[in-house]
User: Which sequence fits this backbone?
């Protein structure tokens, strides 16, 4: 299973990334939204995880563009927003899951379980 992780801080997310890989995922890291959109067009990720504070796009805008490109890609967003604010910002985008600002191995396992339940 291909997972595209879009983050400008891959070192901070090492435990999260390692747990995704341990769960059977092949993780590709894109440093920004532009690279992520190119990677998604060239490959076939099942899931795209968009980190907050990307250098070139807001994560919800990236999710919207990914949906235009391929509506079959599941998405998750790393966000420090409250549940209510996250719901408002992501309304209509079909985001699979909100992840905490610094997701760890437990968050990765939870994300993989959620993905397995819907995929």
Assistant:
């Amino acid at each position: 299973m291909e997972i595209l992780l879009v983050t400008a801080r891959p070192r901070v997310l090492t435990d999260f990334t390692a747990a995704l890989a341990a769960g059977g995922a092949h993780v590709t890291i894109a440093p920004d939204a532009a690279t992520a959109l190119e990677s998604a067009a060239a490959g076939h990720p099942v899931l795209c995880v968009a980190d907050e504070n990307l250098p070139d796009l807001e994560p919800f805008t990236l999710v919207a563009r990914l949906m235009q490109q391929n509506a079959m890609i599941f998405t998750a967003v790393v966000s420090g927003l409250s549940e209510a604010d996250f719901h408002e910002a992501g309304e209509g985008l079909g985001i699979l899951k909100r992840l905490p600002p610094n997701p760890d191995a437990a968050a990765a396992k939870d994300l993989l379980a959620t993905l397995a339940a819907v995929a």
In short: The chain has a mean pLDDT of 96. The first strand starts at residue 2 and ends at 6.
